[in-house]
Structure formats: structure tokens, C-alpha cells
Model the fold of this input.
Amino acid sequence: MYSLVMRLVILVALGVGVYVSSHLWRIVFLILFALYILAWAKLHTQARAVDMVRHYRHRYANHLQVISGWLQLENYERAEQYLMERALASVHPGIFRGLPLRWIYQMIALDAYAESLGHMILWERPEHIAGTYRMLWKLWAVLKTVIPVTQGNIVVRFAPGQFVVEISEEGMAKLPRNYIKGVTWERHQGVITASWGHR
Done:
């Protein structure tokens, strides 16, 4: 809180400097103001990246704790099942390999957001991502819509030029048909799907 107040005080001081200064000093204050805004934005991005790293460390620790518990109970079959179905599906490091950096950053951020609400995103076939920013924006919009209201895990399947998001029908009373242009929402056998892309 103190840090935020200090940043706002500095911004106000620079703004006052821009307003009351003569022509030459006004340019200097404007440059300082712009540099401070850029530094603030960079600091915010770095803080968000640190939060995402913490999120992944926390996830690894949770999975190891669960697997350790099953092994201590000598339930090796349950430990192996958990490892294959949950742990490896959610934390294996090669899942984002080869993707554009912007995609990786947004997918990890969405992953962290889902886990903060008790959900897990299972990414299937991410190697098919074409890497367009339009597709990334549509995926981000769909996941930001469904993550807060879904119950359980979210499956995201990729194919060349398209994606399909699957969630459980529980928790979502109505389909937001007109919310995201180009996204088709369907309900079938207890599963809601949101699809986008060329078929």
C-alpha cells in the first residue's frame, strides 16, 4: 500500500511539473513522466511473472504431496493413476515448447487464474496452435467467461486454426451466445463446448 501511494505521489508531482513548467522544462517533465509510466508498467509485468512462477511451484508441491501420501499408504496404483491423470497433464514442461512467447505468457496466466479458483486447465495438442493474436484473444475471452462459473476442470483442444473449450454443464445456467463474436456455444450430454475457428 505504501509503495502504491509513493508511486501515485511521484506521478502527481511529475504531472504538476508538466503543468506549471516553462516550455523547455515541460518537455523534460513529459519525458520523465513517460519513462516513469513505462518503468511502472514493466514492474507490474515482472510482478505478474513472479506470481506465475510461484503458482507453478505451488502446483508442483501440491502434486508431490498428494503422490507422496498415496505412496505412504502403499496405494501404488492410485499414486500412478494420479500421476498420469493429474500431475503430468498439468505441469509437464514441454507443453508450451515452440509456441510464441505471447501465447505462452497468456496460457500460463490463464492457468494461474483457473487454479486460483480451484480449477485446472488441460491443454490438448497445443502444437497445433497457429499463433495468431486473433485466436489468442478469442481463447482468452472464452476462458475468462467460463473459468469463474464452471465446476471442475476445463479442457482446451487445439486443431490447426481452431480451438474447442469443454467444461462441465454444472455452474453455467445459460450459454453466452452473443458475447464473443465468432464463438459457437453448444450444450450436449452434460458438457458445454465453446468452439472457434475454421472447420
